[in-house]
Every structure is written in structure tokens, then in C-alpha cells.
Amino acid sequence: MGCISPGKTISRFTRLAASGALMLSMVAPAAADAGCAMPGSFDDPDYVLYEDAKALFWVRPLHVDADGSPKAYHRDDPHGNKGLAIEYIGNGMTIERDGKPIEFNPREEDNREWLSAYWSIVKNGWKTPPGLLVDIYGFAWDEGEGPCVGRGGRLVSTTSLSRPAASDYCSQSRYFDALEFPGIVVPNRAEGEAAIPNADPEVAPPFAARGVRRGDLAIVYNPATGIWKGAFLYDTGPRKKLGEGSVRLVMNLTGRKRPPRSASETNSMSLPETFFLLFPGSVSDLGAEQDWTPERIETAAAGRFKEWGGGSLATALKRLLACADEHSIRKP
Fold this sequence. Notes:
By secondary structure, this protein is an alpha+beta fold. The protein contains seven helices and 13 strands.
């Protein structure tokens, strides 16, 4: 990840505005004058600035998350190269042999050991043969029955945020589709890690302690295109990883129209650098869960962004860029 100095931020912003990539060119000359005003910080798992109970900010690559999409995983297409899935099944499960992880290799020809273990598990009715240990986290598991396998072998891909009205864990409609909803991911609370009282128990303590809950609104900015878009916290991921977003979010930030058709294409969409701004407690802005739509999420997130900027989107963008400068200066 490349750090952004104050000078680079302004010159990049000016260049994008002049090219028409961003329609707020009038704010470029004053961008350096806007203050970030986020005095707090923590470094777990990466460096994050925060303003108590108001906002958190970080700069990270944006890796693509396909979870929640009915097209994410397929039992018979573990490498997502047969037109049945858009994600590597190794990104939704891990396999150990005799206590040692078997690494999933995206190159199918170099993944024989993992595939051999995987097919032995599938052929055994998803019951783990002796010597193997499986951890499934990307697709739904029906207690006592094994993974939720739909028609033709499609696996029900899950998100940490779910619709309570859909009580069936094996219903794909229970989860938020990464191809439809613009979402971000924060680390989950690790097993054995104490939960923060009165906070979201699924969210990692450094975020939960600042009021972050699943469903909270966010703004994500792509410095390569000058595009910012609204999103919401729709999933939690590995405890030591920060910087994931849904397929739809990445498409929105790049102007891409066609969704990916394979796992390799999905993973190739990752962005080298993005700015994240998350508003703790803002899930309340969305109203009743049954009314949540991608459009409602983007509109509500833009409203929070405008408020954070003192009532102006132009000022909010100035402040966002100032936080990128501040982040690069203060990051250990």
C-alpha cells in the first residue's frame, strides 16, 4: 500500500477533477485547509483513526468479498472456473490434515492436495474422514445435516448480517447479496475474545468499543477514479484482516457494469488503495429492515457524509482527503 503525502493527495485530486472524473473540482484548491479532526487511533489489525462515537477512518487495499451472493460458491466448482461459481471455495472453508492447514492454491493444477482432501469430504457426505478437520465459514451449515446444498449443488453463501424475518438458515434470501448490495467488512470477534458489553458481539472489540454495529453506514473513496460511494457494514471477516468490500461496492467505485463470471475475475477486481469512513450507530438511519435497498443505503450514507462535513458534501470530501493525509503521517 502506498502512503499519500499531503502534496500527492492534492495533486491527484486536482488531476481527477480536471479530467471530469469527479464533479467537485471547485473544492480542490481548499482541500489542504480542511482538518481531519479525528484525535483517537488504534492499530488492530491495521491503523484506524476515530472520533468518539462519530466516525472511524482507515486506508487499505480493497479486497473483493462475494459472500451472500447465490453465485458465490458451488459444490462442483471449487475453483470457480466452470461457470457455476464466482468465488474460490477455499475462501469459504479451510481444511487441515493431522493438525496442519492444507493451503488452497488458486491455480487448480497446483492444488491437488487440497482438492483430494476436499473431494474425499464431499464424497463422504460432508462428514470429515479420519485425519482431516474442516472449518466452514463462507456458506451455511444446517446443524446435524452438513452444508446447505441447494439445487444442482449450489451452496448457500452467508453474511454475518442477516434478515431476522428469514429464519431458515438454509434460505439464501436470509443473507445480503454481494452482487446487489454495496457493503464493507470489518474483522469479527475471535473465539475466546471477550465481547464488549452492550455492543455488537460479532464485531471485533476495537471496533465494537467505538460503537460499530453490523448495518452501520459507510463511505468508501477510490483515489484512482475520484469516485466515492455509500455502503453499509454487511459482513464480518477474519480477525486479522481489514479492507474488504462487496463485489457491488467495487463495481460502483470503478464504474464497472458487468459482474464477474469466475473466481479469478472476482479476485482480480481488488483495488490497491481505498479510503474508508464508517459511522458508528448509523444503522438506525435505515429504518425497518424490510425496507433496506441498495438505493436507500447509498442515500442514507451520503446523508451521514454530508452531516460529517458540516452540511456540505464538498466540505466532507475535503475532510476525507485531510484524513488520508493525517493517516499517512500518524501511521506507525
